[in-house]
TrEMBL record:
Lineage: Bacteria, Pseudomonadati, Pseudomonadota, Alphaproteobacteria, Hyphomicrobiales
Alphabetical list of InterPro entries matching this protein: Solute-binding_3/MltF_N
Top-level taxonomic group: Bacteria
Protein keywords: Signal
Organism in which the protein naturally occurs: Methylobacterium terricola
Protein name as catalogued: Transporter substrate-binding domain-containing protein
Stretch forming the signal peptide: 1-21
Domain named Solute-binding protein family 3/N-terminal: residues: 32-252
PANTHER family: AMINO-ACID-BINDING PROTEIN YXEM-RELATED (PTHR35936:SF19), MEMBRANE-BOUND LYTIC MUREIN TRANSGLYCOSYLASE F (PTHR35936)
Length: 254
């Protein structure tokens, strides 16, 4: 039994470590930077009906690849499989609105932060004064909708034990659940709240909260290689200082 337990323990340890994560030199030798994007989080990255992608981090993925002297390859992933796909070496760097969390930081490197955000509610405009605190939302009669596998679901699980929480699988269509009165509220990052409120003007609105419910940082999440992190951080620091990232985000939010 001890031998079996030991084998299980070794397998568990190995499953938490990238088996063949590529270094910067390997990426350059291959000539391709593989960028993981969920494609369901505007204005960072959104997959259109024709299969194409648009968004600030779609633009940034191309710019980063050019800075490294390679081509870009977009690798589809999901919030639920984001960690497993990185550890399985399916992509080199995740972009598209990834929140820095301790569990993610324990297995791979984050770049310098691209921005600070926080969770806020989005509701039908008639309800914008109704859901202004966590307590307002955490009631049995309130229908909370959330996308699976990311920090939105973690926030809902931790803060809404009494509300009626429903996981909806498609983050691109989830806001129509509120618009069509099949749900009352979703709590997500402020950037997405503001974007969806503009896209659905007059129907969906940010709740009139005095401040975000929490604060979090967004960054790019990559295979653990010091040379890769240095190269990404150097490029990103210059990109942020020049205002190029902010302009790309503003353009994608139009």
């Amino acid at each position: 039994m001890r031998k079996i337990a030991g084998v299980v323990g070794i397998i568990a340890i190995l499953s938490a470590v990238p088996a063949a994560a590529r270094s910067l030199s390997a990426i350059r030798q291959d000539g391709t930077l593989r960028v993981g994007l969920t494609g369901d989080y505007a204005p960072y990255a959104l997959r259109l009906p024709d299969g194409s992608l648009k968004g600030a981090d779609v633009t940034m993925a191309g710019e980063l690849a050019r800075a490294l002297g390679v081509k870009v390859e977009i690798v589809p992933t999901t919030w639920k499989t984001l960690k497993d796909d990185l550890l399985a070496d399916r992509y080199d760097i995740a972009m598209g609105g990834v929140t820095i969390t301790p569990d993610r930081a324990s297995v791979a490197d984050f770049s310098v932060p691209v921005l600070v955000d926080g969770k806020r509610p989005i509701v039908r405009c008639a309800d914008k004064a109704r859901f202004v605190t966590v307590k307002d939302i955490d009631k049995p009669e309130v229908r909370v909708v959330v996308n699976p596998g990311g920090t939105n679901q973690r926030f809902a699980d931790a803060n809404f034990p009494h509300a009626s929480v429903r996981v909806f699988p498609d983050n691109r269509a989830i806001f129509q659940e509120i618009a069509q009165n099949r749900a009352d509220v979703m709590v997500t990052d402020g950037t997405e709240v503001d974007y969806q409120s503009r896209v659905n003007a007059g129907v969906l609105c940010p709740a009139a909260v005095p401040d975000a419910f929490n604060k979090n940082e967004k960054a790019f999440w990559m295979s653990r290689d010091p040379a890769l992190k240095t190269a990404v951080d150097d490029w990103l620091t210059k990109t942020l200082k020049s205002g190029a990232y902010g302009r790309a985000l503003a353009k994608a939010a139009e």
